[in-house]
Amino acid sequence: MTTHDDARPPAVRQLRLVVEAEDYEAAVTFFRDALGLPEQAAFSGEGDARVVILDAGRATLEIANPAQKRMIDEVEVGRQVAPRIRVAFEVDDSRSATRRLVSAGATEIAPPTVTPWQSLNSRLDAPAGLQITLFQELLDADERTALDGFGTDRARED
């Protein structure tokens, strides 16, 4: 006999984004030391194979349709610049984190900007060929749900 719990897909325990970095040392220094992602593990192997796993806190997977991706670029940068994959990091202070990361080698694409969804977002080109967004939430989750256009697809399905 199968119970309802047995019919659910297996729980995902972790989201791990794997990035190949030509300049491994620069990427590790930037993300670990400048951005402040704690080192969780590091491994090395034959032929100078190396990997470091950095703890990025809680992970989410943000899936946006093309119109939303264009809108985010327009709000954050004022033009279309993002590749298909962009990595976003929630920080406590977008302005100081942006300054720190630019000093550590990132290129600022757009300075911290207040978005319609009430976060303070900046856009940077970072090592390892990643375009990143730093975001600081200006409202808590309950306050954001009261904003026009903010909700969940699940809530719309009900």
TrEMBL record:
<dbReference type="InterPro" id="IPR029068">
    <property type="entry name" value="Glyas_Bleomycin-R_OHBP_Dase"/>
</dbReference>
<dbReference type="Pfam" id="PF18029">
    <property type="entry name" value="Glyoxalase_6"/>
</dbReference>
<dbReference type="InterPro" id="IPR037523">
    <property type="entry name" value="VOC_core"/>
</dbReference>
<protein>
    <submittedName>
        <fullName>Uncharacterized conserved protein PhnB, glyoxalase superfamily</fullName>
    </submittedName>
</protein>
<feature type="domain" description="VOC">
    <location>
        <begin position="13"/>
        <end position="137"/>
    </location>
</feature>
<dbReference type="InterPro" id="IPR041581">
    <property type="entry name" value="Glyoxalase_6"/>
</dbReference>
